[in-house]
Amino acid sequence: MHRRGVALIAVLVVAAVMTIVGSLLFVGTLGDLRQTRSTLQAAQARAAAEAGLTYARYAMEVARGDIKGILAPKMNLNVNPATDWVLPESQWPSIASAIQSLLNTGYGSLPPGAVDQGQASVQFTVTRFRGNTKGATAQTYRADYVVVSTGQVGTAKRRAEEKGYFEVQLGRPSLSQWLFLVDDAGGQTGFFPTGTVFNGPVHANHNWGFWGRPVFRDVVSTSDDGAWYWSLGGDGCTGGSRVWVRGDSRPPCTVPDFQKGFLRSQPPIDLPTSTLSQQRAALGMDPQDTSTPSAKEICFALGLHNPPSKDCNSNPSVPNGVYLVNDGNNVKGGIYVQGNVDQLVLRATGTGQQVYTFKQGSNTWVITVDYTTNTTAVTKNGAPVGTYTGTPNGPASLGTGGPTGQIYVTGQIKSLQGPPRTGPLPCGVDYPGSSDNCPDHPPPAQIPPALSKETQLHITAVGAIGLTGDLVYECDPTKVTDPGYLATKPRCALGAGQTLPTVLGVMSQNDNIYIEDSPIKAPDNLYLWGSYLSGASGKGLAVENYSGRGKQGKLRLFGGLIQSADQLRGIVDGLGRLQSGYIETYDYDLRFADSALAPPNFPTVRVFDVQKVQTTPLSFREF
Question: What's the CA dihedral at 525, 526, 527, 529 to 10 degrees?
Answer without folding.
Answer: -150
